[in-house]
């Protein structure tokens, strides 16, 4: 890892819709207009629903696309591949003497709610950056209406959230590329105060162990809500594409496609979920552990539940605490 005095901070952008998607390009333009160094490293083709796939059996081709703007690169792989190309010690940012203050994956064109996060390439891009110890968020326009005005709405909500995060994030992540000295099992006391849990969530986000998943409705009411994942189940997702006669059985060769326009069942929940928030035209902020259960770096549910505590502004209380702490004691 390069030392801070030889590098410049930047914001890394990736996605799964592809490098030419208006979601990522409009977001890059927004941050660049605020004098941030922005680096876009995104797939050369649409990689939606590829989850955390890594390309292990073929080479990755990286191209600079100057026609799309400064520091825009395409990669012949998945979002996770793109992040590796950017953040690895032999990667793109190292060669440009840049260190990412924050990674943003998106803006995805379509929602990433409920268990969508398990197969979302957008969410995987953020999670892979967090594996490198970089604070990361995933962001999505939760709508099928892809008009530029709706994408611009998601850009504005994403910018508002990230502006808050950037007020307290160190410009050079303290856990970048995860130094071996930081390899130890997370120790959590059994009895913690609310304030102590907020501290753990804040520190976990800065270390890349907590992820933020943002979903923005097209008709956003301008407010945010801290949410849990909603429960949904997609039915009738397999559609027969090959032409067959009525009552015809299975043929030797069939053509099918997967669709999400069949029936969708929603699990009733007393908690405020991402699905519920979007119905009410709020932007939903869901905080999730980067690591699976039983992993040494996981955030236990006893602490993670405090990410549902909202401030008056609708942002998670731990984010507001990070801002207050920065005001009182600059990093």
UniProtKB/TrEMBL annotation:
InterPro entries hit by this protein: SurE, SurE-like_Pase/nucleotidase, SurE-like_sf
Q: Which SUPFAM superfamilies match?
A: SurE-like
The name of this protein is Survival protein SurE-like phosphatase/nucleotidase domain-containing protein
Q: Could you cite one Gene Ontology molecular function of this protein?
A: nucleotidase activity
Q: What UniProt keywords apply to this chain's record, in alphabetical order? A: Hydrolase, Metal-binding
Give all residue intervals belonging to the Survival protein SurE-like phosphatase/nucleotidase domain.
11-219
Name the species this protein comes from.
Galdieria yellowstonensis
Respond yes or no to whether keyword DNA damage is given for this record.
no
- Top-level taxonomic group: Eukaryota
Family membership: Belongs to the SurE nucleotidase family.
Q: What is the lineage of its organism?
A: Eukaryota, Rhodophyta, Bangiophyceae, Galdieriales, Galdieriaceae
Stretch forming the signal peptide: none
Instruction: Name the residues that span the membrane.
Output: none
């Amino acid at each position: 890892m390069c030392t801070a005095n030889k590098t410049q901070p930047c914001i890394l952008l990736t996605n799964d819709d592809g490098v030419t998607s208006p979601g990522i390009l409009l977001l890059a333009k927004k941050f660049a207009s605020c004098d941030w160094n922005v680096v876009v490293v995104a797939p050369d083709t649409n990689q939606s629903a590829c989850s955390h796939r890594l390309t292990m059996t073929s080479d990755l081709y990286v191209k600079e696309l100057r026609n799309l703007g400064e520091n825009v690169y395409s990669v012949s792989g998945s979002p996770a591949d793109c992040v590796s190309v950017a953040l690895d010690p032999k990667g793109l940012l190292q060669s440009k003497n840049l260190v990412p203050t924050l990674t943003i994956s998106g803006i995805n064109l379509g929602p990433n709610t409920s268990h969508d996060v398990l197969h979302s390439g957008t969410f995987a891009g953020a999670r892979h950056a967090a594996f490198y110890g970089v604070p990361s968020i995933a962001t999505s326009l939760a709508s099928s209406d892809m008009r530029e005005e709706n994408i611009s709405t998601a850009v504005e909500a994403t910018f508002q959230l990230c502006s808050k995060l950037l007020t307290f994030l160190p410009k050079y992540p303290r856990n970048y590329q995860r130094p071996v000295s930081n390899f130890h099992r997370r120790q959590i006391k059994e009895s913690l105060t609310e304030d102590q849990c907020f501290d753990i969530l804040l520190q976990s986000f800065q270390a890349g162990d907590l992820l933020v998943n943002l979903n923005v409705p097209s008709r956003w009411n301008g407010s945010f809500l801290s949410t849990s994942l909603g429960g949904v189940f997609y039915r009738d997702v397999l559609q027969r594409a090959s032409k067959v006669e009525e009552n015809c059985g299975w043929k030797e060769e069939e053509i099918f496609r997967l669709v999400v326009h069949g029936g969708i069942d929603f699990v009733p929940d007393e908690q405020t979920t991402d699905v519920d928030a979007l119905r009410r035209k709020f932007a939903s902020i869901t905080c999730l552990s980067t690591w699976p259960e039983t992993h040494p770096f996981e955030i236990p549910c006893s602490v993670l539940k405090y990410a549902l505590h909202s401030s008056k502004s609708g942002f998670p209380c731990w984010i507001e605490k990070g801002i207050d702490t920065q005001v009182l004691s600059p990093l």
